[in-house]
Amino acid sequence: QYDFIFVHVKAADSLAEDGKWKEKRDFIEKIDVAAALLTDLSPETLLVVTADHSTASEMKAHCADPVPIMFYGGGGESVRVDGVTAFNERACASGGLGHMVGLDVMPQVQNLLGKLHLVGA
Question: What CA–CA distance (Å, rounded) separates 47 from 38?
């Protein structure tokens, strides 16, 4: 009954800011396991998975490295499938979305959900 749900998982960022790269890796692996719960979503549900920024453990700070993003579901044929088979920085860099900036994410979500006015239609 909701149009949008946002979940922010902070621990990996905090661990990287503390320079704890092994703990960051282990926490990301826990996120991977927990994400399996999302495989039971309705096909009409649009799932978007990304990060708000990169945090380098060796620098103990945020950095400007690109982050992966995934759009999944949304019903019908709204999300185009590309050849990416893993969710990580290198794999997603070769995906069909190309390089997006943060300001492009919500318009893309709205478009995939059919909420934007079609310009020129």
Answer: 8
Residue 54: strand pairing partners = 63
Alpha carbon 19 to its chain's center: 23
3-state DSSP assignment of residue 9: coil
**Unique residue bearing structure tokens 């993003």:** 69
The Cα 65–Cα 60 span in angstroms is: 14
pTM of the model: 0.82
Question: Tokens 């703990």 sit at which residue?
Answer: 23
Give me the amino acid identity at 28: I
Q: Cα–Cα distance between 41 and 47 in angstroms, integer?
A: 9
pLDDT tens figures, 82-99: 999 998 889 999 999 888
Q: To which residue do tokens 């490295």 refer?
A: 65
